[in-house]
Amino acid sequence: MDHPVVSSLLPVVLLIVVGLVTGKLKLIRQEAVRDLSNLVFLVLTQALLFRTMSSVHVQDLDFEPVSLYFAVAAALFTVMLLVQGASSRAAVIALSGTFSNTVMIGIPLVGLAYGKDALVLLFTLISLHALVLLTFATVVLELLSAREQSAEADGPPRHPLKSIGLAVRNAVVHPVPMPIIAGLLYAQTGWGLPDVVDRPLQLLGNAFGPVALVLVGVTLSNAAIGRNLTGALVISAVKTLLHPALMALIGYAFGLRGMSLTVLVVAASLPIGANVFLFSQRYQKAEDLVTASVAVSTLVALVSVTVVMTLVPLIAG
């Protein structure tokens, strides 16, 4: 129980189990899931993202290692998207293969295993993680959704530039990028958040992880797990094995060594973050598959993250 992987992942597993039991007992009805999803996505996520970014000072960040992390994630996202046929559903699944649970699992895991110095790099990654990956995924999703809606509608097809313009607008005026951008802009003023504002935001942000994971369990109680188990295992393997393997190989090729390479490879090996589940709920794409994948990847990570943490010192030096 003192092993960093076990102590970091077990609380996540237990929260999903709590939601699963709650859903099976009908304490939270399926009809309420959409409302709870909106609560998490439109309230708790906003508080977490704004508060996280409100203390980020761009001049203090070391962009070189994390930029390589995002390049690897973007490349894997693109390959997964193209392999599945470049649809909005494929975009949600591609996000599942690239978006890690860096906060609830990553922070305690890296802190316990590697100490305070490693957390500095992880916090740099976390400060940009949602901004880069979720905004990128949102733009792709909006573009693909616009194309699909245009194909389904009667009449002449929408001009490509108009589709791109609408997609970019929808991606910016969106519950994910807006609090990130607002928080980042506020951080550059140097004012800091007054305690009377910071404390409520902290409480709301802290509620995001537990509520989102319980909601995963509730949704899981009504999902067709058997039908999605094979797909969930494939996505979990991509997220917890292929993603870190690519990060290790490309990071090593570009000269990353030591703690920088170790932290980024371990971050890539983490299971799927709950934000992907919320994306699937919001766009109503691959909901059962993503729900199953979040749960399965968390269980798989008990083994896969241990393997990655055992092997990464061999190349990190």
UniProtKB/TrEMBL annotation:
<feature type="transmembrane region" description="Helical">
    <location>
        <begin position="166"/>
        <end position="187"/>
    </location>
</feature>
<keyword id="KW-0472">Membrane</keyword>
<feature type="transmembrane region" description="Helical">
    <location>
        <begin position="292"/>
        <end position="316"/>
    </location>
</feature>
<keyword id="KW-0812">Transmembrane</keyword>
<dbReference type="GO" id="GO:0005886">
    <property type="term" value="C:plasma membrane"/>
</dbReference>
<keyword id="KW-1003">Cell membrane</keyword>
<dbReference type="GO" id="GO:0055085">
    <property type="term" value="P:transmembrane transport"/>
</dbReference>
<feature type="transmembrane region" description="Helical">
    <location>
        <begin position="66"/>
        <end position="83"/>
    </location>
</feature>
<dbReference type="InterPro" id="IPR038770">
    <property type="entry name" value="Na+/solute_symporter_sf"/>
</dbReference>
<feature type="transmembrane region" description="Helical">
    <location>
        <begin position="207"/>
        <end position="225"/>
    </location>
</feature>
<comment type="similarity">
    <text>Belongs to the auxin efflux carrier (TC 2.A.69) family.</text>
</comment>
<feature type="transmembrane region" description="Helical">
    <location>
        <begin position="260"/>
        <end position="280"/>
    </location>
</feature>
<protein>
    <submittedName>
        <fullName>Transporter</fullName>
    </submittedName>
</protein>
<keyword id="KW-1133">Transmembrane helix</keyword>
<dbReference type="Pfam" id="PF03547">
    <property type="entry name" value="Mem_trans"/>
</dbReference>
<feature type="transmembrane region" description="Helical">
    <location>
        <begin position="90"/>
        <end position="114"/>
    </location>
</feature>
<keyword id="KW-0813">Transport</keyword>
<feature type="transmembrane region" description="Helical">
    <location>
        <begin position="120"/>
        <end position="145"/>
    </location>
</feature>
<feature type="transmembrane region" description="Helical">
    <location>
        <begin position="232"/>
        <end position="254"/>
    </location>
</feature>
<feature type="transmembrane region" description="Helical">
    <location>
        <begin position="6"/>
        <end position="23"/>
    </location>
</feature>
<feature type="transmembrane region" description="Helical">
    <location>
        <begin position="35"/>
        <end position="54"/>
    </location>
</feature>
<dbReference type="InterPro" id="IPR004776">
    <property type="entry name" value="Mem_transp_PIN-like"/>
</dbReference>
